[in-house]
Amino acid sequence: MKKNKAKKITVAVSAVFLAASLGFAGPADSASGDSWIFSEIVTAYSGAAYPSVIEHADTLVQNHPDSIYYYKALLYKGESLCFLGRNSEAEPVLSRASGSDDVDVQVMSFYWLGRSKLALKKNSDALAAFYKCCEISRSKKISKKSEHYYNMAVYYAGEIYFISEEYGKCIPVFESVVSRGGSYPVDSYSDSFVMLFESYLYEKKYDALISLYKKTPEMKGQPLSNLYAELSLLASKAYEGKNDYRNAWTCCTKAFDSTDVSVSTEGFRTAYRISSSYEKQTGKNSAQVFERLSEKFSSNPELLAEFWARVATDCFENGDYENALSYFNRAEKYDGEKRYASLISLYRARLSGNTLELVGKLEESNELYADYEAAFAEQYAFIGDWSNCCNHGKNAYEKTKVSDDVNLCRKSAYYYAMGLLNCGKINEAENILESGKLIFKKGESFYDGKQKLLARCYAMSGREKKAMEIYGSLNLAGDEITDYAKVLFSCGYLALSKREGLRSNSVEGKYIAALSCFNLKEWKNAENLFSEYLMTNAKTNRGYAVFYLGYCQYKLGKTSAFDTLENFSSLFPGHSLCYSAAIVCANSFISAGDFKKALEQSSLAVNLARSDGEKESATLLASSVYADSGNLDKAISVLSPYVKTSSDFGIYCRYETALLYSRAGKINESDRLFKEIGTRFSSSKYAEESYYRRAELFYSNEKFREAILRFEDYKKYYPKGNYYEGALFYCGDSQRKIGDSRMAMLSYELLLLEYPKSSFAYAASKNLVGLYREDGNYPKALEICKKMLDSALNEEQKSHARKEMESLKVLAESGNDPKIILSKKYESLGKHKTREGRIAGTELAEFIWNAEKYSDAALSISERIYAEQTKSGNIDAECLYAAKNAVILAEGKRHDNDCLSSAGYFLAAAKYSRMGGSNELASRALYGAAETFDAAGKKGDAKNVAENLIELYPDTVHAKSVREFLKR
Fold first, then answer.
1. Distance CA 796, CA 883 (A)
2. Which whole-number Å values give the CA distances from 299 to 253, 286, 293, 460, in the listed order?
């Protein structure tokens, strides 16, 4: 049923990043790679963080024009612009996205292009875009996700016909929608039903409406019970059209109990009118209606006042002046706030007669016609009856076009434009205001009001920046400040939007301020504002506010997030964020270590998913929860149904399953899946990394010969691949560890030659120096040591390279045994008894340990020196040297299978390294402690140490290794 409710500026609710599990993005990539950027786009989109989606999409499109994600990034950007109300910007983006070869991307691009054009009132262009979406959907094979967009394109095509008053074309479209209700969201299904019934009425197809109404079972539960009440009202009109007043009255009574007050009062109003006019035919009288009405609204006199005022105006328009006056008296009785006083007075003047003799309708020829039509427009605007405001405003406006009364011209134009705007006729309202520039003068009456209306026109038609310019130049109050805050928010001026939202002192303004804080990641302020908003019992955006409140609590680490989000889907059934709430809640429980609850929420998310993408993301989350709880077999079984498919998601599930097998120690099963991805799905975006992970799998499990073969395979098939540098390094390292020094040297040399700036350059140089040193080729070792110094990433590495160079220079020049040189230096400086001696001894121990792994001589020197270095008087000055000796002792204990003692030494090494400011050595020591605890069966201790390593040194190579370790 068409409603005369004021049209408001709307703003897309927006959020920040949710957990990465909100969208599956494929294997990890570097922070600058297109795959990584696209994963960020998907994550941001799933959390409704539309500004972030646009930012990442721009980065991908600009930096990776040949990426396989190029058109998808454009689609995400265009859709996000639509959600933010920036439809004019969305049009060209979505037009570019529609050029994709991917059928699903085409379907979605044309759908959102249609949505953007519809928002800009370009109805014929929008209809063409929706038609193109449907045409592609029907002629080509599309995914289940795209089926949703096909269905919605059909719905919006019907809506365009309805807006254009082409009701005959509406009917078959909405009959199709209603017959397939399960394919549509509840709100779209409900609107289709209403527009179909209204189209039947406009086309006078009463029998068709009544037939469908009879076939429609009475709907229970919200929001469908309100829909059924509205359909019953429309059915009553069809029965009236057939002069069947008894059934018309019966249909009206079904709207009495609707929780939608406008529907309920309309039901009473229509029933009252029918029973008053057709008492014999209905067998009912108006007193019965009044009794039910008084009972329902006994605690709300304002609604009774509105009811009687509207019944009175109906009587007046039908010439029933006696009853009109009686009903106006009743309205006045209940109108304690004097909301309808002006309207009642105006009608009484017309009814009772006055010096102007205004009984009945004032003739257009009367010289006061324009004044009174403008007065009516003003009064109707006051009570929000925009249809009548528009009609009377138009009468006044047309009459004043030739008037010399400038103020009356302004008033007529102002209220006519206001009526048009609130009836959704934005372009017409804007034309009236723009054409009135000559009569609206700055500083004179109605100028500011006219500017505010114009700003609303701009905002509602997607021209937020122009609206922002006008709002910024005016003195605003109340709802006007709220509208300004919305425009600022849509334009991305979040700090200003927050300020204006708070300044408005309105409930809606508080909500906009909360959203702004949310996007600014001011979690505490956002939490407080959303809490305050919810305490007002506001109904608009309540579901969004609850979700964002819960998310703020999650980001603040509060357990109250569980209580806020756990029952979200039962509190707000059908809400667009039900799925996201379950995902965030699951991640909250994961953070708290409550895997049972996390599994419940991730399973709920699977059931709530509205698209294949959401279902897939929830499935991955459920699998990861099982994996984190240690149940790797169950994690694998969750993915197993998809592993059998050949879709992108099926291939990715193979990849994830291969990783899970690796963590479970099932190397062969993991290798089999990685191989299948790389060979059977060689064109997949996961193929290259699967080839690399095969090799890495065997390297991590110290099966170096098998690793070499797989690294060689990777280099063969991907000579310019993303992981080629890593393959060269780890292939060389595997060769070094099996004693194939010559091949290792070649691998390292090739890496340094082709990728001198590689992140592996320092490690490759260091290992190569060691190999040439062992080979006795000191000049070559010295040459490589210079490259080692050039590629050092921090001062510690540079210091190590310089010491190596000094040592190698001595060896290259003298040809003497370095062990003898260092031993003499140790003895000459007083051995363990002096600080200088202990430093020299540490160098000697390190040299022997590296040259003669697990040497008792090195352990003996380190043990004696370490005991002296860790004394309270020495440790502050010698902490770094103590750390190096602790590492040697830890490795020795590890070699002897004394894992707990080894872990103790590693932790001590980490402690002393941090004292000395050596992040690299501390990171290495923490990794050693985690690995050793794990070997000792102390899984909890191993996990704690690993997490500390990641927190303290997230960007080190050891942090990367320990992340893989944690997955096992």
1. 13
2. 20, 21, 11, 36
Question: Residue 52: is its pLDDT beyond 90?
Answer: no
223 prior amide bond cis, ω within 30: yes
Report how far residue 223's alpha carbon sits from residue 237's, in angstroms, rounded to the nearest whole number. 22
User: Token digits for 354?
Assistant: 């006055």
Residue 2 to residues 6, 212, 539, 895, Cα–Cα distance (Å)? 12, 20, 21, 82
Cα-based angle 228, 230, 232 (whole degrees, multiple of 5): 70
Question: What H or E segment, with its residue span, contains residue 241?
Answer: helix 224-241
> How far, in whole angstroms, is CA 69 from its chain's centroid?
18
Three-state secondary structure call for residue 927:
helix
Tokens linked to 720: 């310019």
196-223: average pLDDT: 85
DSSP letter for 475, please: -
Amino acid at 731: C
Do 2 and 9 touch, CB atoms closer than 8 A? no
**pTM of the predicted model as reported, rounded to 2 decimal places:** 0.48
Cis? peptide before 719, omega within 30° of 0: no
**Tokens describing residue 198:** 């209204």
User: CB under 8 Å to 885, separation ≥6 — which residues?
Assistant: 842, 845, 862, 863, 865, 866, 869
Q: Indicate the DSSP class of residue 363.
A: P
Cα(532)–Cα(509) distance, rounded to whole angstroms? Answer: 12
pLDDT tops 50 at residue 776: yes
Q: What is the C-alpha radius of gyration for the chain, rounded to an integer number of angstroms?
A: 38
* Under 8 Å between Cβ of 85 and 50: no
Question: Letter for the amino acid at 449?
Answer: G
Mapping DSSP to helix (H, G, I), strand (E, B) and coil, where does residue 327 land? helix
Taking the C-alpha atoms of residue 473 and residue 448, their distance in angstroms, rounded to an integer, is 10
DSSP state, 665?
T
Spatial neighbors of 188 by CB under 8 A, at least 6 apart, are: 152, 155, 177
Q: Phi, psi (5° rounding) for residue 297?
A: -110, 30
Residue 742 CB neighbour total at 10 angstroms: 10
CA distance 606 to 849: 55
HSE toward the beta carbon, residue 802, CA cutoff 13 A: 6
Q: How many whole angstroms separate alpha carbon 355 and alpha carbon 507?
A: 46
Cα angle 202, 176, 102 (rounded to 5 degrees) comes to 125
Instruction: Please write the tens of the pLDDT for every residue from 628-678.
Output: 888 889 889 989 988 888 888 888 899 999 999 988 889 999 999 999 998
Tokens representing 125 are 């262009």
pLDDT digits (tens, 9 = 90+) for 517-547: 988 889 999 999 999 988 887 777 888 888 8
CB neighbours of residue 758 within 10 Å: 18
